[in-house]
Amino acid sequence: MAAAGSGGSRADNGYGGQQARRRKGPGALATGYLVIYNVVMTAGWLVIAVGLVRAYLAKGSYHSLYYSIEKPLKFFQTGALLEKYLLIAKYLPGIVPSSVVLTAFQVMSRVFLTWAVTHSVKEVQTEDSVLLFVVAWTITEIIRYSFYTFSLLNHLPYLIKWARYTLFIVLYPMGVSGELLTIYAALPYVRQSGLYSISLPNKYNFSFDYYTFLILVMISYIPIFPQLYFHMLHQRRKVLSHTEEHKKSE
């Protein structure tokens, strides 16, 4: 999710943290690979942020800024699928103390929003709601991948840790709102065009209504977003209170 997003943003699957340290982490080679991956992803989302700012300054308007960052957004958001493999399938037992289901939902929901909604329904690309989740994702991912990088290097600045466990309070609802509004804006065009829908009769004796599917996706945010949000609030209390106690003991 986007946020769940989106901004919104992903359930806490930081490489640092007390629980992670008690587990066996990745070896030196895997750590090096993960550092490179996270540095590249941080740089990629910085490119998107710079692209948004430059386009805004050039146009003097925030409308339709999506086109200025469309290609890097697709590339680096889809790159999160590699992260899904690295974290969930390969290294989760050793370094990631978060829910597999929640993490997978966030990764897949953002890729879904990028390709199956925003890319596929051209009419919504000018909607302000797209910019809403893109900005939320961008800030979230710059912070998150920086957090991962410094955690892997065992040199995590407090400011990045604080931002990781604080700014989501605003960015998660912002991203989710943008995602839901964008899906909602796409519904009339999907219904009119029959996009991705399969009607009977056909040789497979199977039907699929993409319009209904999008409505079900929107409904799925109701049980899942609160879990993500309260999970992060719990992590915030645990991580930042632990940091404060550690400072006082020094």
UniProtKB/TrEMBL annotation:
Domain of life assignment: Eukaryota
Catalytic class of the enzyme: lyase
Leader sequence residues: none
Gene Ontology CC annotations of this record: endoplasmic reticulum membrane
Claim: Chaperone is one of the keywords in the record: no
Annotated catalysed reactions: a very-long-chain (3R)-3-hydroxyacyl-CoA = a very-long-chain (2E)-enoyl-CoA + H2O; (3R)-hydroxyhexadecanoyl-CoA = (2E)-hexadecenoyl-CoA + H2O
Pathway(s) it belongs to: Lipid metabolism; fatty acid biosynthesis
Transmembrane segments: 34-57, 91-118, 130-153, 165-190, 210-230
Record-linked Pfam families: PTPLA
Region (Disordered): 1-24
Alphabetical GO biological process terms: fatty acid elongation; sphingolipid biosynthetic process; very long-chain fatty acid biosynthetic process
MF term (GO), any: very-long-chain (3R)-3-hydroxyacyl-CoA dehydratase activity
E.C. designation(s): 4.2.1.134
Principal location: endoplasmic reticulum
Alphabetic keyword roster: Endoplasmic reticulum, Fatty acid biosynthesis, Fatty acid metabolism, Lipid biosynthesis, Lipid metabolism, Lyase, Membrane, Transmembrane, Transmembrane helix
Membrane-topology annotation of the record: Multi-pass membrane protein
Protein location: Endoplasmic reticulum membrane; Membrane
Biological function: Catalyzes the third of the four reactions of the long-chain fatty acids elongation cycle. This endoplasmic reticulum-bound enzymatic process, allows the addition of two carbons to the chain of long- and very long-chain fatty acids/VLCFAs per cycle. This enzyme catalyzes the dehydration of the 3-hydroxyacyl-CoA intermediate into trans-2,3-enoyl-CoA, within each cycle of fatty acid elongation. Thereby, it participates to the production of VLCFAs of different chain lengths that are involved in multiple biological processes as precursors of membrane lipids and lipid mediators.
Similarity comment text for this entry: Belongs to the very long-chain fatty acids dehydratase HACD family.
Name of protein: Very-long-chain (3R)-3-hydroxyacyl-CoA dehydratase
Annotated source species: Poecile atricapillus (Black-capped chickadee)
Lineage: Eukaryota, Metazoa, Chordata, Craniata, Vertebrata
Gene this chain is encoded by: Hacd2
